[in-house]
Amino acid sequence: MKNDAWLDELVELGATATPTTVIEWADHREVVMGFAKEKLESLLLS
Questions:
Q1: Tally of domains within the chain
Q2: Could you tell me if residue 11 is inside a domain?
Q3: Is there a domain that residue 22 lies in?
Q4: Phi, psi at residue 6, to the nearest 5°?
Q5: The overall pTM is greater than 0.70
Q6: What is the pLDDT of residues 18-34, one digit of tens each?
Q7: Does the residue 1 lie in any domain?
Q8: Residue 32 in contact with residue 42, Cβ under 8 Å?
């Protein structure tokens, strides 16, 4: 890319490359940061 300034600005605003998964049910929401395989499995299989 010629101009990576937009990426620098996103990082300054707090963006990260950390994957985030949001799982929603009718009565609540769970947010899982990173590659938390065990946490994701327990939420999805419960």
A1: 1
A2: no
A3: yes
A4: -65, -35
A5: no
A6: 788 999 999 999 999 88
A7: no
A8: no
Sole residue written with tokens 């395989």: 37
Q: Is residue 33 part of a domain?
A: yes
Question: Which of 13, 37, 27 is closest to 45 using CA atoms?
Answer: 37
Confidence of residue 3 (pLDDT cuts 50, 70, 90): low
Name the CA radius of gyration of the chain, rounded.
15
Q: Is 1 exposed, middle or buried (0-12, 13-18, 19+ CB in 10 A)?
A: exposed
Helices (H), the chain: 5-12, 37-44
Rounded to 5°, the CA angle 21-27-31 comes to 20
| Rounded Cα–Cα distance for residues 19 and 32 (Å) | 8
